[in-house]
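Exercise 3.2. Students should predict the tertiary structure of the chain below and write it as structure tokens, then compare their answer with the key that follows.

Predict this chain's 3D structure.
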Amino acid sequence: MTGRRVFHLHLVSDATGETLNAVARAACAQYEDVRAIEHVYALVRGPKQLERALAEIEEAPGMVMFTMVNDELRARLERKCLELEVPCISVLDPAINALGSYLGREISHKPGSQHIMDQEYFDRIAALNYTMAHDDGQNPGDLDDADVVLIGVSRTSKTPTCIYLANRGIKAANIPLVPNIPLPPEIETATRPLIVGLVANPERLVQIRRNRLLSLNEQSETDYVDREAVTAEVAFARKLYNRHSWPVIDVTRRSIEETAAAVLNLYSRKETT
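Answer key:
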């Protein structure tokens, strides 16, 4: 894009950097005419690691965003940025300070506290194992153990959405809707999971499916990419969902994260009713 601004963005974290990276990318996504050259420094917990980061910041000056709880390291980073005249932002301070004020508590000053291997961590691992074992209609026998079951025609992002949900501790299975192939009978008797139907615009599905076939060096024309056949698939899916009163999410213009967020909203409402 003509006139697009490119800038250096330094991300300094005393943990894995996941939180920092997510915040930084969410912020940058709001500006269509810029591109950040990311410099990521994870597990910065001592002077040696910090000095490496400071050297690179000095070599390629740009905005600095950080998540560090060690006061000495923070102060050293902030002094250097002041010296270089580059902005330096602690992305978690506003939320942590507001929470501390509300709770009347002091922070723990433990780097990476959100990654402690507690029960929640092991629940996420269990959810991921379940999700991988129940991808694409596999092992339907214990479908009632799922928290969420996603149903949809091919290329409606069932698998990546389930994996995203699993990382949030949700045991998610997915079942493909394939023409002339019945759903597993377990879906009719399942009472525990939230069952959600996924749909997408037929034209968009055809485009995605064609790209998929091209990536596999498959050139033949089949019903898989036939506009009328795909339209019929989507119409059948909608009728099926309506017959079972399953909630429906149109994924045509949604990212994986947005689809997962919609599923989580439905799941939360189900759990509170």
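Discussion points: The first helix runs from residue 18 to 28. The chain has two domains: 5-114, 119-271.
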